[in-house]
Amino acid sequence: MVRNGCGAVIEESADGNIQFRVRLGLILREKIAHLIDCGFQKFWQDGDRRVPARAEELKALHELQRDLRAAMGITTLYNEALGTVSSKYIYDRVEGREPGKRHPSFD
């Protein structure tokens, strides 16, 4: 299934239900790149290639996801309805980066 540069692979399961075989993403180099969240920005990642996600791409992904989930009868969860849900979250870990500074009120 492809629309507006985004796509997913869907299939019928043994019990007759339709399900995602490959999660929704952006079509890059004839593959589906998945969304990752690096804390400060979202990126599309396809193997070793990572490109910044643009607003119009995220909007196209939201629309396709909404329509597919409605057609498949899948319940939309609260966090998914709020915005983009990434396949992977990578945040800057600040723990241990600087020597410990403890405020006296915490003792």
Characterise the protein shown here.
The chain has 107 residues and is of the alpha+beta class. It has one domain (2-92). It contains two helices and seven strands, in the order E-E-E-E-E-E-H-H-E. Strands 1, 2, 3, 4, 5, 6 and 7 form a seven-stranded mixed sheet that branches.
Total helical segments: 2
Helix content: 10-25%
How would you state the average pLDDT, rounded? 78
- The succession of helices and strands, N to C, reads EEEEEEHHE
| Structural class by SSE content | alpha+beta
Highlighted features:
107 residues; alpha+beta; 7-stranded mixed beta sheet; extended
List strands and helices in order, with pairings.
Elements: E1 2-3, E2 6-12, E3 18-28, E4 31-37, E5 42-46, E6 49-52, H1 55-72, H2 78-82, E7 88-89
Parallel strand pairs: 4-7
Antiparallel strand pairs: 1-2, 2-3, 3-4, 4-5, 5-6
Tell me briefly what this model is.
The chain is 21% helix and 36% strand. It has helices at residues 55-72, 78-82; strands at 2-3, 6-12, 18-28, 31-37, 42-46, 49-52, 88-89. The model has no long low-confidence stretch (mean pLDDT 78).
